[in-house]
Automatic annotation (TrEMBL):
Keywords: Periplasm, Signal, Transport. This is Multiple sugar-binding protein. The keyword Protease does not apply. GO terms for cellular component: ATP-binding cassette (ABC) transporter complex, substrate-binding subunit-containing. InterPro entries: SBP. It comes from Devosia equisanguinis. GO terms for biological process: maltodextrin transmembrane transport; maltose transport. Residues 1-20 form the signal peptide. One of its GO terms (molecular function) is maltose binding. Belongs to the bacterial solute-binding protein 1 family. It holds the Pfam family SBP_bac_1.
Length: 418
């Protein structure tokens, strides 16, 4: 410091050493502008406290993310941190050597905050912890109360499959599109097949098929799931042009009040507003959640739910700074901001306590009371099998494949991985 003071006194130029910054790239799929602003704000807070770390937040849309991630992880431009839905896709990434174990770097506080379920969800079969759980979510039947009233459909009558189909017919008779679906993206269609499997096969049946036991996914319950799906598809319940409609298109169609129902994750509460023409969507007092219809003789528990346990994973070259950033991003104080705005249901202990949105509160209760919270099938079954599930689900929605063929294609995909 004496040399610097002397140089200043003599009017000499002083070149201060620049502070080296570690760059952390966090690849996300958040598309709602206000939610992106919140993420940017949290990153700004972190960088103010950690001037030696620079956070970059690149974005990829859902489908582009799935398509490009594997290539990105093998490139020089690999993100340090990236979104994950967990399950078999995550296991494949760990097995391929794309990820960094963080159990020795992640603090005990961070592990405790995401709880046993969160730690378990991001621990691979090799025993290493590769990520941090962020949120839980459920796929639910959103419905428009005004359209139900207009068509004379009692929501309570939709609780059984036969009652559900009868309600769909009433909407058609009233000239109202019963259901919005984004079949172009395929994964929205897989929610229908998956929910039917949850009802018909239940946890034990699904896990046995996943292991390749007996007839696997070509078994009776899985063929039946396709048959029930076709029963619905044959009624042409979807909006015009559904095969060319993306998730965003279908979400906006529902948000604009043009369809009575939309089978979608809890995130659609915000997305259907953002995708609607007026950016306001369906008013809360006109919006509701229906239980997915039960099926007589189904082996699933009526409380079973389908959804996600999302979070982030660390790529193999991620720095300790990346872990530090994620711990900050995922702390209860920051996650409570997401809960307060009803963007998602945080897993971080205490963060969800501030939730007042009645839909998110109900969904959190559903998951908490579930006998089985099934992970999205296209994620749980890994990328190869999951891709086939999505493909055949879109074909079932379009009534262009038989239930037997759909089931056999999924079984073949599973057999190829065993």
């Amino acid at each position: 410091m004496k040399h610097i003071a002397l140089a200043a006194m003599l009017g000499l130029a002083v070149i201060m050493p620049a502070q080296a910054q570690t760059v952390v790239k966090h690849l996300h799929i958040t598309s709602i502008p206000a939610e992106v602003e919140l993420m940017n704000s949290i990153a700004a807070d972190f960088m103010a406290q950690n001037p030696d770390i620079k956070i970059e937040l690149p974005f990829l849309e859902n489908e582009a993310f799935k398509a490009k991630l594997t290539t990105l992880l093998q490139s020089a431009d690999a993100p340090d941190v990236f979104h994950t839905w967990g399950g078999g896709v995550f296991y494949e990434q760990a097995k391929a050597g794309f990820l960094r174990p963080v159990e020795d770097v992640l603090s005990d506080e961070a592990k405790e905050a995401m709880g046993t379920a969160g730690v378990s969800a991001f621990t691979a079969p090799d025993g290493h912890l590769y990520g941090v759980a962020r949120d839980v979510g459920e796929v639910v039947l959103w419905y428009n109360k005004a359209l139900f009233e207009q068509a004379g459909v009692d929501p309570a009558s939709m609780e059984t499959w036969d009652g559900f189909l009868a309600g769909v017919q009433k909407f058609k008779d009233a000239g109202i599109t019963p259901i919005a679906i984004g079949a172009k993206d395929k994964w929205p269609a897989h929610f229908w097949w998956s929910k039917l499997v949850v009802r018909l096969a239940g946890k034990d049946g699904f896990q046995a098929a996943q292991r390749g036991e007996g007839d696997g996914f070509a078994g009776e319950d899985f063929v039946k799931a396709g048959e029930y799906f076709l029963q619905l598809a044959e009624m042409e319940p979807w909006q015009q042009g559904f095969l060319a409609a993306s998730y965003g298109d279908a979400s906006g169609f529902f948000g604009d009040g043009k369809a009575a129902m939309h089978l979608m994750g809890d995130w659609d509460y915000g997305a259907m507003k953002d995708n609607s023409a007026n950016k306001e969507g369906i008013p809360d007092d006109q919006l509701g959640i229906l239980p997915f219809p039960t099926i007589e003789g189904g082996k699933g528990d009526p409380t079973d739910t389908l959804g996600g346990l999302g979070g982030v994973l660390f790529s193999k070259n991620a720095s300790d700074a990346a872990v530090k950033w994620v711990e900050f991003f995922n702390n209860a104080e920051n996650q409570a901001k997401y809960a307060a705005e009803a963007y998602y249901i945080p897993i971080s202990k205490g963060a969800a306590d501030v939730m007042t949105n009645p839909f998110k509160v109900q969904i959190a209760k559903n998951i908490g009371n579930a006998h089985w919270h099934a992970l999205f099938f296209d994620q749980a079954l890994g990328p190869n099998v999951g891709g086939v599930v999505n493909d055949v689900s879109a074909e079932l929605a379009g009534n262009s494949i038989s239930a037997q063929e759909a089931a056999e294609l999924i079984k073949e995909a599973v057999d190829d991985t065993l």
